[in-house]
Here is the input.
Amino acid sequence: MASASQVVGTWILVLLYVSAILYFVIRGALKTKSLSDYAIGTMNFSPVSVGLSLAASMTSAATFVINPGFIANYGISGFISFGIIFPIGSIASLIILTKSFQKYGQTIKALTLAQWIGQRYKSKGYALLMAFLSLLLITFIVLIIVAITKVLSKALNVDEILILVSLIVFVFGYMMFGGANSMVYTNTIQAAIMIVVAVILLTSGYQHFSDGIASLFDKLRNIDPNLVTATNAESPLFRDFFEIIFCQLVVGIAVVCQPHIITKSLLLKSEKDVNKFLTVSVIVEILFFLVVFAGIYARLTFPDLSVDGTPLKNDGIIPAYVIKTFAGGFAAVAVGLLVVLGLISAGMSTLEGLIQSVSTTITSDIIKPLFGDKIKSEKGLINGNRLTIAAIAVIAGFISYDQILNPKLSVGLLAQNGVYAFFSAAFIPILFGIFIKDVKIIAPLTATITAIATHFSVYYFLPFLVAEFGIEFGFFTKYLEGTVRNPAIASASAIVLSTVVGLVIHYLTKNKVQN
Here is the structure.
């Protein structure tokens, strides 16, 4: 439980934060006259600001709150997976894909990822398919809502459901008006706060290194020997190097193919700004990804993962760690309040990007093509976008409520399942669209359908066959057993299979045309 001084301080910070957000939203809303303004803005943003905005959007509450909980539960194997392998794949992919995507995006004036794919392959149907698939990203919105709710609930000693409702009303309310014109500025401020907080969290367990790294490993080993091994056979996520290295590397490479990440480069008004934008975002990203190591400190603080005899759920471990670690004198409480603000910022930065990108996609790529004859003006399109945001708020709110009351290990698994399915489907059309000039639509479209079918088959259908009929799939069987399964297995399988299918069809159709 937070102390009285922590509660009062948190309330003051929250009110200041809300005031700052509303200032930038009002400022941005005054410049937002069309859906294009909402999606990519009307102002010339500096590459540094956009780079910080990307870093804040790409590493969300999942990195600062949820994933450290997995490391607290399962140890070094989790850090290798989330803190080393995943960042290597995602940063490399970001650098390779961003330049070409930005150049092509500026050429065709795409506002959304679905629109980019549709125009690249000259297919409104493909754009519509990707737009409907983007609804899977609502699961990521749910993750962030739950994470921020957990942080604020513990810091304010307020019931989680009350925080949940207030958070949804506030965030979705102001996102109806701000858009890109305000989001880059709010994201930049949030990123600056997150940089400070990342350093604080990474140094918050310095005392555990007083006798060297070996001493820290000994402390973990005394709690559970599995916490210091490179693989953790007792975990559902980090059992072997196939899960930890191969799957996370594949997922990391494809994770960039999310609307709120890859379309961020479209905010740049000049191709020459891309290098500075990437330099800033990559440096800050590396710092943010390392924050998951705080989960090790949390496990050393709560060896049995409980507080006063009450077991800690995965998603509540880091909030509890912050409240306990930064209690005491004025200086400690002040630092703790800054960390709380950083955790909130980590969630809000990505939440804003997701609401903006998903709502814009639904409005411009689903509502406009299907019901465009009933929307007579740009103002009508903006109002439709606001109604879309309200609908997303209701859906995300109900799912978040269920995840708070009935989590299956972590809301992170729900989000991973939805988000991984989406970028598995988007990976090949983006990759082919950037690097293959003469590709026929049949190749990426088949790859997209293959990816979706494979992902959900591996996650749901094959486990059903194993559980109900005892069907074996060789070494792969162990990844299909149990009530908690790793979405990275399904996603990596989908990406690999869809890549093979896409390449085969491309070369068959290419040779057929040539002959």
User: Anything to note?
Assistant: The domain at 4-407 is CATH 1.20.1730.10 (Sodium/glucose cotransporter).
